[in-house]
Write a structure and sequence with these properties.
The complex is a heterodimer of chains A (112) and B (125). Chain A has 112 residues and is mostly beta strands. In chain A, 0% of the residues lie in helices and 50% in strands. Chain B is built from no helices and eleven strands. In chain B, the strands form two sheets. In chain B, strands 2, 4, 5, 6, 9, 10 and 11 form a seven-stranded mixed beta sheet that branches. A four-stranded antiparallel beta sheet of chain B has the order 1-3-8-7, with no helix packed on it. The chains are: A mainly beta (112), B mainly beta (125).
Chain lengths: 112, 125
Amino acid sequence: EIVMTQSPDSLAVSLGERATINCKSSQSVLFRSNNKNYLAWFQQKPGQPPKLLIYWASSRDSGVPDRFRGSGSETDFTLTITSLQAEDVAIYYCQQYYNTPLTFGPGTKVDI
Amino acid sequence: QVQLVQSGAEVKKPGASVKVSCKASGYSFSVYDINWVRQAPGQGLEWMGWMNPNSGNTGYAQKFQGRVTMTRNTSISTVYMELSSLKSEDTAVYYCARGRTIVRGDLIRWLFDYWGQGTLVAVSS
């Protein structure tokens, strides 16, 4: 099983400032045949299901604001919110879809 | 628009079974696999398995093998997840999620692009 870890557990960022969340996988999620990282990021607000933000480590899903940026490769990944807005307060999860069981990180809580 | 609507909250006693439904609309039901993910109170997300609504094929996480069964009724575009031998640790919100098919070599994986609203299953004596 691929174990996903995230840091920090939580962070508080001022409105308009940058938030950076790190995610590490216990083994590489890069498939060299297509050079794609099987890594996604989700946002979950209280009482709501998760929402897909980023896939292939750096591709934004449809309708996701461009202030959300994903980067990284193999085992180390980062989600950056370049200018935090009030509506970005949420828990953020990384998830690998390289192997089953599909696994999620423990989450990072972002507050103002 | 794509919607996944789940059945309502359930309260069960230890040892019982629960069956949660997930009704899909707004897209071709048979084209996308449905996955199930659960979230214990205040905890993270845990993948349980998948079902192909067209073929009826399923795959379960090893943790749930022998306790989980996923079925479907194509006439009403609904997938079901039944979990048996419930324990207090099964108390969680259960989500269905549409899986956008992803290929890795000859393997199939999924990207969860739409989610149901969640169903709380509480297990208590």
